[in-house]
């Protein structure tokens, strides 16, 4: 027997006519010879993934270099039309909420160590090397902790026990995500990414004025970021959930 490997690529087609929060995706390059069999595989994957989502998501969400295994709400395969449906707003809310929490906790970490050595003039090679090592460690911890909060919250909603990283394959999942993020750094985009990076740098400069809320998280005092944090607190419950 000859073994064949087939790949299915779905691309955005339209928004649902009755609910514009639902995005509909269709197969981009139909494989007529194996179409029915492959569509059955897609259906089984979507259904099994939705039922066994937590605590180890079976998918990856990738938007540029933002890569995570955050939730894809409402994912559904329509057997009759052979289309994929999902709540695109919910998907972006989940992804960006966790990314925002990561940036906030990293900013807090940076503020904590800044006074200890960044005022040194000139900064020594040893201090710079030490900072880079601490930055890598803080990056990993902040990404890990944001992911844990999300999974713990989802498990509580489903009436399950607390997330146990060692038993639930966290080490393998985090390693896989870090590998994907590493390779994504080499991807070049052809649009105005440089302008976006300059804008992000300007926004970070506005984070000097800050205050702490009751949960011990930092909220930055400028109109845009305060509204942004408030929106994600209400939509995803990430920022205010600091119990774990």
Rg from C-alpha positions? 21 Å
Largest beta-sheet details: 4 strands, antiparallel
Given as residue ranges, the uncertain stretches (5+ residues, pLDDT < 50) are 208-244
Estimate percent helicity. 40-55%
Which band does the percent of strand residues land in? 5-15%
Give the spatial strand order of the biggest sheet.
1-2-6-5
Mean pLDDT, to the nearest integer, reads 77
In quaternary terms, these chains amount to single chain
> Alpha-carbon distance between the termini?
52 Å
Question: Which series of helices and strands comes N to C?
Answer: EEHEEEEHHHHEEH
How many strand units?
8
Work out the helix count: 6
Shape descriptor: elongated
Structural class by secondary-structure content:
alpha+beta
Explain this structure.
By secondary structure, the chain is of the alpha+beta class. The protein contains 6 helices and 8 strands, in the order E-E-H-E-E-E-E-H-H-H-H-E-E-H. It has helices at residues 35-51, 88-117, 125-157, 170-184, 193-205, 223-236; strands spanning 10-15, 22-27, 61-63, 66-68, 76-78, 83-87, 210-212, 218-220. Strands 1-2-6-5 form a 4-stranded antiparallel beta sheet. A hairpin with a 5-residue loop joins strand 7 and strand 8 (218-220). Helix 2 (88-117) runs antiparallel to helix 3 and helix 2 (88-117) crosses helix 6 (223-236). The termini are far apart.
């Amino acid at each position: 027997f000859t073994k064949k490997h087939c790949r299915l690529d779905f691309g955005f087609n339209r928004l649902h006519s009755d609910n514009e929060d639902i995005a509909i995706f269709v197969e981009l390059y139909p494989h007529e010879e194996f179409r029915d069999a492959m569509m059955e595989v897609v259906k089984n994957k979507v259904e099994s993934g939705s039922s066994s989502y937590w605590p180890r998501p079976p998918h990856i969400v990738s938007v540029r270099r933002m890569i995570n295994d955050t939730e894809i709400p409402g994912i559904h395969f329509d057997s009759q039309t052979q289309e994929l449906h999902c709540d695109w707003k919910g998907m972006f809310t989940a992804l960006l909420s966790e990314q925002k929490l990561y940036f906030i906790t990293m900013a807090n970490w940076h503020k904590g160590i800044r006074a200890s050595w960044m005022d040194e003039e000139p900064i020594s090679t040893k201090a710079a090397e030490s900072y880079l090592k601490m930055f890598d460690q803080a990056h990993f911890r902040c990404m890990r902790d944001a992911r844990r909060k999300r999974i713990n919250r989802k498990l509580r909603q489903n009436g399950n026990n607390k997330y146990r990283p060692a038993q639930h394959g966290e080490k393998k999942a985090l390693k896989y995500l870090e590998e994907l993020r590493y390779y994504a750094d080499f991807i070049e985009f052809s649009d105005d990414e440089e302008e976006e990076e300059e804008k992000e740098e300007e926004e970070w400069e506005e984070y000097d004025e800050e205050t702490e809320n009751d949960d011990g998280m930092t909220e930055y005092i400028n109109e845009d970021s305060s509204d942004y944090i408030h929106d994600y607190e209400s939509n995803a419950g990430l920022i205010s959930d600091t119990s774990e």
